Each structure stands twice: as structure tokens, then as C-alpha cells.
Amino acid sequence: MISRFVLGVGLIGLMLVASFGTYTYLGGRQSKVAVVAQKPPAGPPKEHAYILPGTLYLAQGGAIYSLSGGRFHQLTNQNGWTQPALYPDRSYLLAVQRTEDHSDVFVLGRFGQIVEQLTNNAAPGADNSARHWSFYPHMSIDENSFFMSYDEPKFGYDVPFSIWAVGMAGGGRQLWTNSNDYTGGDIEPIPLRTGGIMFTKFNYGPDGNLIGQLWLTTRASPGPNGVDGRALTTPEDDCSEPSISPDGTRVAMICTGEKQVANLVIAAWNGSYLGALQTVISDQLVAQPTWAPDGSGIAYLAPAAGSSNFQLWFLPKERYNPPSPSPIPVPTPTPGGPYHGLAPSPTPAPPVVVPLVKPIQLTTTSGFDATSPMTWAG
């Protein structure tokens, strides 16, 4: 089990706690001597390169990039930009700009231009406790508010993240979850069509280890002792980084089983409960799974080798949606026939040969931000 320690004071602690689960796993698995990442290639795709549908947005080196038609485009400068999230109508992006002592949420155009600043977490003077951190923004389905992980309430250097809803155009704020102290808190909120949110809650499990669980809550918390909802996964699964499929019927996530792994796992989703967890990749250090808008597969980040930078990969749906076996034919009995009205033993159908579908590596020299969710427009 990777060591998960209580976060220390200062900036490093704040950065770790903002994406505690991912930083802990990924930081523990990467080499201390890593190859310097290069910017995503800006030229046309190579001949026979795999072209993803739509436009994928992701972060590297403090800049946000788009990938469309096989070409990367740098949308922002390299000035702390991370965690892009599309509006439900795909008109704009939410994104976080991170500085040395705070972070804020902005609205960006789809070409990276700043449209509006939604939070102001800087504070004058030298009082660091007055500065704040906003992470993992997601716009509500009706676009009247956005959700974010935010370090309030906080007490000195104890900065657990809880989830807040912030109204657009000065609509006020509501506390939706109450995080647990010294855990990293509640992160990665995803608004649901039903009006609630799915999110990752970090807490200490029965064995005393810090674990992640997917949770569901359907309403704002009424106060410090309010109800936060209920868990969707078990402590033993240790899951985080949820992503809901475009048709709303499945969830992709990262689960570790409290081991030094980060498996890609999917489960059926009916809006209230998850089905059985299905591990589809167990031999890579997977991060930030994101469904293709046309349902053709799942993009994710993972090293090409155990000690290298995180590259972009794509897993076609044939890997987790293999062909169904043909039904076993049952002959119809013939009255008065040789079987006297009884059907003979059915003839087994020939076995279905499921091709081995491997993930497709789309980049080789980049170093994408494995703590930044990706977002994908059709």
C-alpha cells in the first residue's frame, strides 16, 4: 500500500491536498529522473495516425490544449491553467488558474480566450490563511450555477476541501458536502441530470488507510452536521476520478483496491446506484478516464513505461463491449416425430472469438497533467 501521510503545512500541502488521491498514487510510482516532457505536437497528424472524434481538451505544463482532427492546439499561455470542463451546451469552458498561493475559476472561450473570472481567492497582505483554493469546477446542467471543490471552512493549515455550488451572476453560494479533516476532502464533483452530484470523498477506511470512494448527494447540505449523501463504492475498492458516459448509463473510474495500482474500471449506472465493477485495464497506471462523445471508447492518461511521463491513450469500446455469444439453437419438436414430441439435446453454438483489443497510444513525448480531468466535445 502506498504510504498516505497527513499533509504538511505550506504550499506543497495545499497542492497535494487539492488532488490528494492522484498525487499520492502517481507521485509514488514515477521515477525521480523523468524525461523532460515536450509540448504536444502542433503539426498535422502522421500518416495512418488514429484520429479521435470531436475535440478533446486537456492540460500540460500550465497550459490548456485542444486535440481536434489529430492536431493539438495550445489555447492558453503556460501560466498555471488546468482542469478544463465544458459547459453542458459546449459553448464555453470552465478552467482553473493556479498560482503560488491561491487558485481561481474562469470562463474561457473554446479557443482559450478569457471571458469571465468567477472567483477571487487572492487576498491582500501576507495572511496566507485568507487566500483560498478552487479546484475541479463543473457547470450545473441548467448552467445557472457551477460546482467546485473549495477549502472552506478551514482552520489555519487544516484545509479539507468541501464541495460548494456557486450561483452565476451573483447567485450566492451553497455548501453541498462536509469533508473529513486531514483527508484531502471532497473533490471532482459531477452534476447529474437528476439535480444531484457524484463526487470523490477521501476518508479513512476500516483498516486506517486513506481511501477514496465515489459518493452521491442529491441536495445541498443544511449545515456542518448535514447529510452528505451515500457511498456508491466500497472502501476496499478505493475508487476516484469518476466520468459518466454520454448516454448516462455507465461510469468510468480509477480503482486501486488499496494496492500500488490504478486500474481503469467501469460500472453500469442507473442514476442512483452503480452495478458490479468491471476492470478493463489493470496493467497501466491509469488516470482521468473520459468517454468519447460518440460512445466509441474511453480516453485516459498513463505512462508509456513505469517511469515515464503521462501520455494520451484511447481504449476502443470493443475492449469492454465484446460481441455477445449467439443464442443456443433449440430445435422445434415435430409432433409424432422420432423424438415423440421431445426436443433433442440442443447443439451448442460455436464459441465467439473475441479479438484482443489493445489501448491505442496517441502521444509519445508529451507529459500531460495527470491530476487534471479532460473534457470532450462532440
Written overview of the protein:
By secondary structure, this protein is mainly β. The protein contains two helices and 24 strands. It has helices at residues 10-18, 20-29; strands spanning 55-60, 63-68, 71-74, 81-86, 93-98, 103-108, 114-117, 134-139, 145-150, 162-167, 173-175, 186-191, 197-204, 210-217, 230-231, 239-244, 250-255, 263-268, 278-281, 287-291, 297-303, 310-316, 360-361, 375-377. The strands form six sheets. A four-stranded antiparallel sheet has the order 3-2-1-24, with no helix packed on it. The protein has a four-stranded antiparallel sheet with strand order 4-5-6-7, with no helix packed on it. A hairpin with a 2-residue loop joins strand 2 (63-68) and strand 3 (71-74). Helix 1 packs across helix 2 (20-29).
Low-confidence stretches: 1-33, 325-334, 336-349
> What share of residues are in beta strands?
25-35%
What is the helix content? under 10%
Strand order, largest beta sheet:
3-2-1-24
> How many β-strand stretches?
24
Largest sheet: 4 strands, antiparallel
Mean pLDDT: 83
Broad structural category: mainly beta
**Separation of termini?**
39 Å
The coarse overall form would be globular
Please give the count of helices: 2
Roughly how many Å is the radius of gyration? 23 Å
